[in-house]
What we know:
alpha/beta; seven-stranded mixed sheet; six-stranded mixed sheet; about 45% helix; about 15% strand; binds nicotinamide-adenine-dinucleotide
Amino acid sequence: MALPTFQNTPMESLAASCQTVRASFLSHKTRPLEFRLKQLRKLYWGLKDNADLIHEACSKDLSKPFFETYSGELNWCMNDCIFMQNNLTKWAADESAQDIPMANKLLGPKIRKDPMGAVLIIGAFNFPIQLSVGPLIGAIAAGCTAILKPSESAPYTAAVIQKIVSESLDPSCYIVAQGAIPETTALLDEKWDKIFYTGSANVGTIIAKKAAETLTPVTLELGGRNPAIITKHADPRLAARRLLWAKSYNAGQVCVSQNYVLIEEDMVESFLREIKTAYAEFYPNGIRKTPDFGRIVNLRQFQRLKKMLDETKGKIVLGGTMDEADLFIEPTFVLVSSPDDSLVKDESFGPFVPILPVKNLDEAIKIANEVHATPLGLYPFGNKAECEKILSQTRSGGASLNDGFFHASIPTMPFGGVGDSGTGAYRGKASFDVFTHRRSITKTPAWMEGLLSVRYPPFTDKKFKQ
Ligand code: NAD
């Protein structure tokens, strides 16, 4: 099967597509669970039947290693379809309301799970299937209709997503729109019942402002600047292997991987030694030729990363080679001397690991809180008490103790940021919840009218005494 070609959706058709999915939502066809389960089943098979195309597209867009595409894109989403199908009936059922005063129990209070409506999903490039199809799975499960706008920076994958969605799903309910800023801006001009956005904080601000004009709820999955903290009691080999893994996965283009490392001074030497050992173990035949390391997504991102490395005042201790023609950037560890170094302050979203030595754990925590008070992830390496201290004196969307972003590798665990790294969470049940409105409902029996007469005027003295 040949890869489909990416084409921007004509601007003039975007409004009509929005009207289509809104009309379909208002027709109530997505409400029955049978409909949703069928769509999830079809999406599963669409992914499975197009597995080869997905691998080829991710390889063309990002030189994603086969294993990374399989585990982080294809299999991830197929399993998500199954997980949703297995749990949907339970999640979608009415819940009886909790902590209700005895007298109000007579009203049979319950929470109904209503779909939010017609939703817009905007994806990012680095996990081009997972970050677009993942939220779509949640929207389908919740009974919403949706327009999905994948990232134009991964065009081959975006085209494959369009093929799968258009061939597998109800075309009046789920539509893929392709394009960049003009097309996304046009989509944002339409009225939505929810916008689910994954990408940079700068664009997140644009989305949030636009949504505020119509009081549209948003979920924002935003950028990193995540610290790893290595204390003097950490195991340097473990820290080295795990942090190298977390920065070489997808060539460092992972929102939740560590952006910088704070390390107690005593540990620097052994950590650097172990990083070099781990590097040689991971890439025994050199990193240039291995199929196990990806490439930077495009020239613009390559040049941005090259400039970042040019501007650092730090000293490269491992890596540093680049090849523009191949969009190759080697995992690069840089010893820096200040938290003001651009490699620490700015999100690299590439395979750079600035390492900043600190005097002690308190200084590490202070710097981490100053660089970015609310990162997406946080990675303490140390003993139990140190990890607990770090957790209790910082904030972050999530955290992996003694590891790189492993908490974010669990597909059924809620994933999201805090503060300016994001609003809301999804994955697993959270994906259903994020597109669901919890509608509180009571039913007042006619026989209660006598009891209820107390609430009606006139508010006589006798009523106060009752
Ligand atoms: P991006 O913000 O450039 O693009 C994301 C999406 O927004 C794309 O679909 C793009 O077409 C659209 N977009 C871009 N500019 C726009 C504008 N002016 N108006 C409207 N829409 C616009 O992000 P990216 O380069 O694809 O991804 C990198 C960023 O995303 C990093 O900051 C990374 O940390 C973050 N990210 C976060 C998560 C998460 O789950 N929290 C996941 C992946 C990436």
